[in-house]
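Dear all,

This email documents one entry for the complex benchmark we are building for the journal club exercise. For each entry we list the sequence lines for every component of the assembly. Then comes the predicted three-dimensional structure of the complex as a token string, followed by one or two observations. Please use this as the template for your own entries, and keep the labels exactly as they appear.
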Amino acid sequence: MRFLLDAEQRAFAASLDALLTAADTPAVVRDWSRGDHTSGRALWSRVAQAGVFALAVPETYDGGLGPRPVELAVAFVELGRHAVPGPLVETVTAAVILSGADPGTAKRLLPPLASGGTLATVGVGRSYALDGDAAGLRLACSSDGIRLSPGHGPVRPSLDPARRLTPLTPGGELLLAGPLTEQALAWARLATAAQALGVGLALLDRTVAHVKRRCQFGVPIGSFQAVRHRLADAKIALEFAHPLVFGAALTMRPAEVAAAKAAACEAAYSTARTALQLHGAIGYTAEYGLSLWLTKARALRTAWGDPHACRALVVSAAGDRRW
Amino acid sequence: MDLTHSPADEAFRAEARAWLHAHVPSEPLPSLETADGFAAHRAWEAELAADGWSVVNWPGEFGGRDATLVQWLLFEEEYYAAGAPGRVGQNGIHLLAPTLFEHGTREQRARVLPSMATGEVIWAQAWSEPEAGSDLASLRSKAVRTEGGWLLTGQKTWSSRAAFADRAFGLFRSDPDAPKPHQGLAYLMFDLRAPGVTVRPIARLDGKPAFAELFLDEVFVPDEDVIGEPGQGWRIAMSTAGNERGLMLRSPGRFLAAADRLHRLWRAQGSPESTRDRVADALIGARAYQLFTYAAASRFLDGESIGPESSLNKVFWSEYDIALHETALDLLGEEGELADTDWAERYVFSLAGPVYAGTNEIQRDIIAERLLGLPKGRR
């Protein structure tokens, strides 16, 4: 038993953090929100070169390094921390789906996902797919199978402006029979949980920095107990979500992943509420950078399984075996 | 990252499980906050000790098995999963013993630990005073130098288990002229039946005497019962405070078992939709606490110390414990009001969690200052 990231995994996180810090992701997010994908695609390529999408592509395929869910979780915490836009979770999910397709299809479609040449999105049932207008590969999942959707409908805005929601056009080539697998859903939820955790960590860091700087009544507001205790609670929520995310990545049991998703998204969202409150009015503006994370924390809560659905899975699996 | 246990650890777990399966009383013992229950729990400590299961992580010479930290965690999981009784000796085992291992003399360890391991001597804590709760360092009970030892005078309160315990440990002001309140304190052990000690039990919410006031009037304590240097008591007490708040006092096994118990109750009540999410949160929280502890144990095994992080634990488990038991009582409906049930006993116990071992407000201040780096402020 050794439940800590190893040196290589920590170095991977640090290198992604450095890459994303240098990339001015807030500016990329602004472009993406307007439907201008140029800077986002450039950033996407660099993320892909760092090996992020390859972690979900089996190593038997060109460019694949996976499946490596722990490293994927490491990466998605950083992507969330830097509010990177685009169908990140969906591209990972598409890779897992395609890994189960016939070898010819997988061989054709997986390498461009690993290399970052193609962005993918996934729609389930009649729901919206994220960034269908940017994706070169659109997978539409229904009970009868998974199809390569021929197009997408008009973009609907999300509460998170960086998330552009699109219905997928019905029809298209049938790639796989049967619905989205439990395993593919688990990968989607794991990536979402890790991303949400990163969002929460960024919100906490930014808010701690703010309350140290911002003075009222002649002192930093971070010296007031009402402020300090809200931040302590945010810290506790995030610190206890963190091991759930990595525990889930290790086991990849669907109920454990659902637990991580519920906890990480709750922690991120409650931290967002705290961040908004403690920033005061400036936090409520679209212009101020905090909004990039605030709105994402809300959106991720219901992406790939709302809190109740995740909790229901946890309860239904309990008693079958110890975690 | 690896959550699998070594064959040696799994063998240890299996041995513990087998012993517990054969020995755990089939009927719950009476509440340990009553005279009968206290005696029954003391006898259980002796039964554990007879086969070396009362203090598994201690060295063999004091009654332990030299178990590793991970093995201790596995023992605790098995212990609570087996429905074994609460540990009446835990104040001594988790607070005083670590202090003796770190700051005591060889003679003190040899004299104090074996009888603690068997339950022959049950220890109570004597920290708080009527005017010194969260602001513990302002305590006023004094230790005055005398021939061969110290004379203790003053009043302690909220002393858990003291109504029925044998001995106590706590902080006393040994140097009234020390420049700061944290200085000039001595960490002492004393006999609750010594001349000059009056123990007045205090009834907790449900009327059971779970703690007591201690009135001390020139109680003699020999030099051999001072731990470390007189005057260094604060530093000594704080060096092991993390044990109380963190890892040792509330092991994950306790909450994993409690969450399972809640889940069984929920199923027995017909799996009502109205409480499904809360049952899920109990299951999720127990797993979170277990994994958080595994991570802390891994860091500890790497040689890192457990410091202010223990404040995260303390807030988490104390609030978790209340939420879990509130859910249970809600599930029980009208029956949830009954005071003579195991669930009611556990609920009342849980209510004290955010207050003892340093209030959760103090813990949040520690988190804010020492983990988040926020400026000090008025409390």
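Observations: The first strand of chain A starts at residue 120 and ends at 124. The longest helix of chain A spans residues 182-213.
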